[in-house]
Structure prediction request, 565 residues.
Amino acid sequence: MADLVQIYDTTLRDGCQAEDVALTLEDKLRITERLDGMGIRYVEGGWPGSNPRDEAYFEEVRKLSLKQIRVAAFGSTRRAGTRAADDRNLAKLLRSQTPVVTIFGKTWDLHVRDDLRIPLNENLELIHDTVRYLKKHADEVIFDAEHFFDGYHHNPKYALECVRSAADAGADLLCLCETNGGRLPHEVAAGVDAVAAATGARIGIHCHNDSELAVANSLIAVQHGARQVQGTINGFGERCGNANLCSIIANLQLKLGYRVLTADQLKGLQELSQFVYELANLEPYKRQPFVGQSAFAHKGGVHVAAVQRNARTYEHIDPELVGNRQRVLVSDLSGRANLIYKAKQFGINLDGLDSHVRRLVEEVKELEHRGYQFEGAEASLELRMQRVLGEVPSFFELVQFRVVDEKGYMRRVFKDDGSFDVRTDEVFDHDPASAWAAVMLAGPDGKVEHTAAEGNGPVNALDKALRRGLVRFYPSVEEVELRDYKVRVLGGERGSASLVRVLIEFSDGEERWGTVGVSLNVIEASWQALVDSFEYKLYRDLRRKKAKKTRRSGPSKVRRVAASR
Prediction:
């Protein structure tokens, strides 16, 4: 049986140190759930005490129903001159109540002298005392040997003494960090070999991409005995980024034969990549290996003719193995397989429904051409599938909506008697803007409801007005909360007249879902996403009711239709 390599994801901490990457608490929780479903073994949630968002993450993540992923809290060795039991940072690590604690320590003598400014032997004591103390209180302790390969290059004896100190203190795994990203593969191989010979411990690898070798260095570390790889989805990270787990996972499993994920989990790799890009509010890198939109795209001439005869002529793997697809840019010939795969994830059986599948493929292609993307907005995609199958009734119909967003430029000058004058000769930026929305909709009985609401912005006002109208027919919409809202300009060459894509996340306390809208008008795009969000909630409620009846009366409608054909 092939050797198992565990994946340790640090997107939520190291990835968030990248320029332009900022994940909300809800983003981090959603990514954690997605990583768990993908079969990733570890997720590093953050550094307890470093910021309020990380503190909140460790509280909220305990409420998730995770299947197998192990959450790790990250921190540094104790301070010099302080007992481990008295160190505040270590106390915060343990208060996070994670099954795994990852602690980093200096292994390059340059850092010990110039950064910590302590004797080399004292640093060995810091490492040993910290790991030994944490091991008494945590289920699993990982020691991140910071700057190990630079340290091993300049002072190999001391670098090995550092990792040996951690191993002797009971560290469950020694993760060798190529922190500056400047070492070459043969140097990484030599360092891994040396640690294996000196300690006999389990070894992990953590590489940065400053020389564009993070993936190569990670792979060669595994070939020399490392059995855990740390990195980030899409290679997010400070400076030039961390090792890209998308490329590492695919190479380890498909090229080197290691066990990393199941075949079905591997097929979700492209979707995971897009999902993280979407939540980070970044445009996906089209030319990213394995998972990028252009990774298996062919344009004109000899290449197109060849791949239509035999895809292996210009494709190093079957793109479907990682959830991607072949694209012929002059006429996109794919889409069906991916759509069927996604339908199965939603629990939708499309067997025997070829005409419906063709219609879905055409609809999704048209929507993508108009700027829609369903990564991070799975609820919108599922609704479209179910509508084609006739599984979503008309919960309500919009008759009309109006939004007014205004800002008053005035000030009140109070007199001694309590009266005041209104002056409009100056502009005061601190005067709050206000918005209100009026919605006219028809309920399931055809009755038209008129509602209006004021909000702290046009989307908030629309949300309140729509909710106020729906709650008369569907009381459960009161459970729904808007958790996140993102806007992306699609192609900025037209300036403020460009298309915009709006991604909205909602939760009802039991489930979180994302929806999408696209328009030249940001309010219209927001409305589309809002409507999908409420319809998804109502559809899920209806499906739960049907499921109870199905358990007593037989198969679902979709399966009955498929069987009849």
